[in-house]
Amino acid sequence: MELINQHTKKIMEGCKERARAAGLTFTDESLEYIVTNRDLIELSPKVMIPTLYDYWVHDVEVLRGKGEYELYPHNPYETVINTRPPISFYNDNNPDWLNVMIFYHVLGHIDFFQNNLYFRHTWEYDFTGQALSDKRVIAKLRAEKGRWVDYILEFARSIDNLVGYHQELSPLFAAPESSCSSRLDYYFDVFLQVEKKLPVGEYLKELAKYNEAKAANPQEGERQFFAEVAIKYPEMEAHFAKSAGAKRVERRDLLRFLVENSEFLARDENVWMRSVLEVVRKTSIFFQPQIRTKIMNEGWASYWHEKLFLVDDRISGHEVDFARVHAGVTSMPRVGMNPYALGMRLMSFIKESGDAGKMGYDFQRIADADKRKRYDTKAGLGDEAIFRVRADYCDYLFIKDFIDQDFTDRHDLFVTGKRLDQQRMVWQYYVKSRDAGQYRDMVLASLYHPPNIEIAPERGEGGALYLVHHFEGKQLVQEYIANTLIGVEFLWGAPVQLETSEAVVEAPRGREAGEEPEITWQRVVYTMKDKALSRKVL
Description:
The chain has helices spanning about 5-20, 35-45, 55-70, 95-115, 125-145, 150-155, 165-170, 180-195, 200-215, 220-230, 235-245, 255-260, 265, 270-290, 295-310, 320-330, 340-355, 360-365, 370-375, 380-390, 395-400, 405-410, 435-445, 480-490, and strands at about 1-5, 30-35, 80, 85-90, 415-420, 425-435, 450-455, 465-470, 495-505, 520-530, 530-535. The protein is an alpha+beta fold. A five-stranded mixed sheet has the order 7-8-9-10-11, covered by helices on one side. Strands 1-2-4-3 form a four-stranded mixed sheet. The chain has a two-stranded antiparallel ribbon with strand order 5-6. Strand 3 and strand 4 (about 85-90) form a beta hairpin. About 25% of the residues are buried.
């Protein structure tokens, strides 16, 4: 692995000038390395962070990657990581024209990293430096504690998808403390939503009342508002006073809860384990936005490498080569999903909609398909729309807001079904639906969504840690429950209980052939005590 030569660096700097002229924004400094395919295979398990701590799973992934490459040789073009400065890696056999296209793609990624609000917590520090410090901590502990370090890593990594990513992010965008009183925060955030469970419509009416009172009298508006609240909810003040003295319990971030509350980890001989848990937690939080913006990020980079390279004079003579490489990256499969292809087409769709003035309510009211196609107010707001989406959205909002019937019809998208041909004993794929809502739901179901696990310490008996899985339509993978709970039990130092939902499938007896069996859900509790797992139906 070595830095790119001055000739290639000059090409990169030229790409930066053109990208900035098109509206992309990013820092001046960047590091580019030339690597071999073998280098990429060895870096991939560490998510391309060379300084990430060592772990035995990384070695296994390297061996698997080498075996796969020997059977199916492939040529990854680039990869880029969100560090300060950004670091990107390029295959050692890329020609200049291909590097131009790839540089535009990388600059799209860097622009996304440095401007998308879901990466806000990564803007203030260099993760490679932090990772190197963490790596040294792990290495030092390995020299002192031996294999126990890898056990703790194993236990921590089994629950590192339960980190409180949004809790880390939200304070960065919170209004100054002086802007809202603690009473106001409690009333709208806790009292109305948690205790009263007010419907959304009623909640918005209450919010409008406060805004009107504050606008009419900025100094006394809040006091007058709470005078009316006291009449409607006389118990509110007592609840607020009680909450002021209550200790706040972190209910989403299991790793942090264990670090702060486990008596086992607080023992002098076990305090070192906290450092390992914090390393795993920080690493997981750093990578959370990349998992949650995969479609947007790749779509944004692909949109710009196409847009910028097509007008670049360095494409001359390589149009067919570009078309071949570009199609291989951004072609839309008939079955399955390509995040590069879907994200790029959605970005183009938003740009066209903004330019034609289709982002407003007037257009949404039009039901006639032909009128929707011909609608064009020449608004010219396409660039503004895509840059706003790039800054404010994650994959979930991106898919939910912009995949509509116009988009699916334009690109002939559909949901596929699969059935077994009994005669030829082969699977048949067929068009199940062309409805945009069903296609959108299919894409949303493929997104990263860790289970919603709440910590309920008050429900645990005899010092047990009680975890509640809030069921959202997908049950936990049962084969992982035992090993995960063994690790949590060790870190907690006492039994662990997990309440979750499991499917009960109705027996097929008496049902017609081909009819889907009916599924009902029941709540169960798993208890891990002394490394033995038991299950109880509630």
